[in-house]
Amino acid sequence: MEAVAKLNNVPTSPRKMRMVVDLIRGEKVSRALGILKFESKHGAARVEKLLLSAIANWQQANPEVDLEEADLYVKSVKVDGGRILKRLRPAPQGRAHRIRKRSNHVTLVVDSANAELETVVESDNTENK
């Protein structure tokens, strides 16, 4: 019962985005939304919107389960490097320095904590039989 949301080609360096997503990894969804809402880093607004998208994806896949009863949490967040725009900046004595404008891809997975408990209980019941 997990849901995935992806964000591609975000014009922020992967290192800066990892600082933001490390704050919410493993947190409950309500707490993660609170953290992102008041975080001053540039990528926090984009990750907040991505988290809301992942919640909507989970609701779309599980219409019979109530969102409050599901007890959603951020299962995993992954930040990969995206495309790099290469530019040249003039330097002294006729030289040029290369500027690399980095981007990243973010993948966020949301899952229900109740589903985790149900699968553990079911596996314990099958082992005891």
TrEMBL record:
Gene Ontology MF annotations: rRNA binding; structural constituent of ribosome
Alphabetized UniProt keyword annotations: Ribonucleoprotein, Ribosomal protein, RNA-binding, rRNA-binding
UniProt xrefs under Pfam families: Ribosomal_L22
A single BP term in Gene Ontology: translation
Keyword presence, Hydrolase: no
GO cellular component: cytosolic large ribosomal subunit
CDD domains hit by this protein: Ribosomal_L22
Described purpose of this protein according to its UniProt entry: The globular domain of the protein is located near the polypeptide exit tunnel on the outside of the subunit, while an extended beta-hairpin is found that lines the wall of the exit tunnel in the center of the 70S ribosome.
Family of the protein in this entry: Belongs to the universal ribosomal protein uL22 family.
Subunit structure: Part of the 50S ribosomal subunit.
Annotated HAMAP family: Ribosomal_uL22_B
PANTHER family from the UniProt entry: CHLOROPLAST 50S RIBOSOMAL PROTEIN L22-RELATED (PTHR13501), LARGE RIBOSOMAL SUBUNIT PROTEIN UL22M (PTHR13501:SF8)
Protein name according to UniProt: Large ribosomal subunit protein uL22
